[in-house]
Design a protein that fits this description.
Blueprint (H helix, E strand, L loop, with lengths): L13 H50 L12 H36 L4 H18 L1 H16 L7 E3 L4 E7 L3 E5 L5 E5 L7 E2 L4 E11 L4 H16 L13 E8 L3 E11 L3 H18 L20
Helix pairs in contact: 1-2, 5-6
């Protein structure tokens, strides 16, 4: 560039600047768009991380926990708040990256001189290609997102997902990890989960279908079963885990070999299995006190409330 003017003053040679910009304008513009996209994504990421960390820190303070692992000894709701918050933060980071990347691509194409009609056609083509080629990934992503938002399951829950059942070890946006009773770790794609049976939310019910001889005194047996269950529910060790009075629902089935009586006890979800084992042991001892010899279960078919065996 050189100086010019009516009196040789210090004015800028706009012609030379225009030539220089014509040669380097596009690369500089593209570089500025890329830098702006990276800076914008970094800012959004920092904001999302601070919000997530703020929520997690608040939950830890409320639970008086030093780290996230310590929250396992706190109420399950607090663990789930941490889990959902972090999962949502991960989703927002991913969405921010995609949105900023798409805007940056549009701006770069505009700088390169691609017209609006071409951009629309390209976007339509890419959208159709993504819809065909990434249907499974999109389905996994959306289903995982809904499961997180709706709190259908959480880490530590005992669930039945159809093909896999066990304890949830990880809930991701695309894959949920479930470890079964044999120790096998199942990786279940969220898009393949059509139903979730969660045995760890709210309350649970221990159901015991006890077979007794056909000639047994039904009233005496029912009263003995109820006394045993009531005694257990009032014991200090179980007082806070049994949340309602045990009930005898009556005779469930009758056959030539035996009569089946149903005993139920409502417990906290986390105490169902332990309470069930203890109740069965007490039922056995209680029936022994009556001198009762129980029939074989091989020929007895019991049907539940839903009609299933």
């Amino acid at each position: 560039m050189r100086e010019s003017g009516p009196e040789g003053g210090g004015g800028m040679d706009w012609t030379a600047f225009g030539e220089w910009w014509g040669a380097w304008g596009q690369p500089i513009g593209i570089l500025l768009v890329i830098i702006g996209a990276l800076v914008g994504y970094w800012i959004l990421k920092v904001v999302i991380r601070r919000v997530v960390d703020g929520v997690v820190s608040g939950v830890k303070r409320k639970a008086d926990a030093a780290d996230t692992e310590a929250l396992a000894h706190s109420p399950l709701a607090q663990v789930r708040v941490v889990q959902r918050t972090r999962a949502i933060g991960s989703v927002l980071n991913t969405l921010a990256a995609w949105v900023i990347g798409a805007l940056a691509l549009i701006l770069i194409l505009s700088i390169l001189g691609v017209n609006a009609a071409s951009l629309v056609a390209m976007a339509s083509f890419l959208g159709a290609a993504a819809g065909i080629g990434a249907q499974g990934i999109i389905k996994d992503f959306l289903n995982g997102l809904f499961m997180v938002f709706e709190d259908q399951l959480g880490i530590g829950d005992i669930v039945d997902l159809g093909e896999a059942s066990g304890v949830v070890e990880s809930v991701g946006i695309r894959v949920t990890q479930v470890r079964d009773v044999d120790g096998t770790l199942w990786y279940v794609r969220n898009g393949e989960i059509l139903r979730v049976g969660n045995e760890s939310q709210g309350w649970a019910r221990v159901v015991i279908d006890q077979a007794v001889p056909y000639d047994a005194d039904i009233d005496s047996v029912q009263q003995r079963l109820l006394d045993v269950a009531t005694e257990m529910s009032e014991h200090p060790d179980w007082l806070h885990r049994v949340i309602d009075k045990p009930e005898i629902w009556g005779v469930e089935s009758v056959s030539a070999e035996a009569i089946v009586i149903r005993l139920v006890m409502k417990t906290r979800a986390s105490a169902k299995w332990e309470a069930g084992r203890e109740l069965r042991k007490r039922v056995k001892l209680g029936l022994d006190d009556l001198g009762m010899h129980l029939p074989s279960l091989q020929s007895i078919v019991v049907r539940g409330m839903d009609g299933k065996r």
